[in-house]
Amino acid sequence: MTSSEELHKRRGAAVARGVGSTISSYVDHAGGGTITDVEGRQWIDFAAGIAVANVGNSAPRVVEAVKAQVERFTHTCFMVAPYESYVAVCEQLNAITPGDFEKRSALFNSGAEAVENAVKIARHATGRPAVVVFDHAYHGRTNLTMALTAKNMPYKHRFGPFAGEIYRVPMSYPLRDGGLSGAEAAARAIELVEKQVGAENVAALLIEPIQGEGGFVVPAAGFLPALREWATAAGVVFVADEIQTGFCRTGQWFACEHEEVVPDLITLAKAIAGGLPLAAVTGRAELMDAVHVGGLGGTYGGNPIACAAALASIETMRELDLTCAAQRIETVLAARLRTIAERDPRIAEVRGRGAMLAVELVQPGTLVPDPAATAAISAACHAAGLLTLTCGTYGNVLRFLPPLVISNDELARGLDILDAAFG
Ligand code: PLZ
After folding, report:
1. Which domain, by its residues, includes 278?
2. Is the pTM for the entire model greater than 0.90?
3. Is any ligand 1 atom within 6 A of the Cβ of residue 241?
């Protein structure tokens, strides 16, 4: 078998430099909570392919469903010759997302595409142009979603000009906003929108209920409900981007549920289909159905193999009770992170929900971000066989996203490596 080193060389000559990778080992196979590289080296997986492999890699039901579908047909294009699984996925999404009103869904390929379509739908339905987003937000890498995303490097640098009518307001970030309550942080954001944009010009307010790439920022209690209430009063479409937080990750099916916030539209991707590319917008029927026939679509959106995988994935989440599994992971992981934080003054905060937890690293006694320590600890984890990711506007957040099917033993071994990496 070709070694990782050789593959890395070939990659350098064939793959564009702009596409990065966290580790330089090449995967041979993966399953449960581990990834095995071409040299047979094992990694405990605290990344889940960026919150995708919630049901694990090659989850049995997903594998079976995909095999069966490939043999029947691979693609007809739902816009040309429709098939049942697309309809069934929409039925499932309408049923499991928050809100007991009539819903509709549309399927796409990637998270960014889902976000783009949510904006299209909100603009079309309201006849308004503006979209409100938040500091530290991440919504994708396409032109519109780059504009919605906050961070310059690496996502936006020299890729402009960006789409217009996007307005950014401050997020509730308890560690860094001087302890504003959720209500105060919401009032600060809303005042800016009203004074600088005008509520009647706003089509959508788009927010990750827990920010992902931006640093696993959990807003103060009351922030999301206050924004929800304002959006309702102002006729603004409240869009929850649950692409990273969705599908049992935070210990609920969707992170909005922790504060009983019901979005008008919800964007979904990542864990939706057990690793196959699929995304969706789900929401109020009257908004979704406002768009004319033919106004939404795409060649591959809701591809039959991805739909088969999504149905199997959702079934697996139910069968294995993965919301409960995420809560169990939280208990073990959070306790261990707090123990590490007690002895290591670089950890300013342990935060997150369910199996979406992180630590933010600073220079001790200050709030000055320490991206160098974060990178060093992450690299030490990689060297010792634990796959971890960093995130955050300041690059100083170490985040943990294990597959929700990780075994107790794998979790414990991963935590031992992490513990040692902190020194
Ligand atoms: N919205 C909340 O987390 C994707 C991006 C990794 P796509 N996050 C991982 C990277 O560096 O590209 C994401 C997200 C939220 C939207 C997206 C975009 O989803 O499927 O990557 O397009």
Report:
1. 62-319
2. yes
3. yes
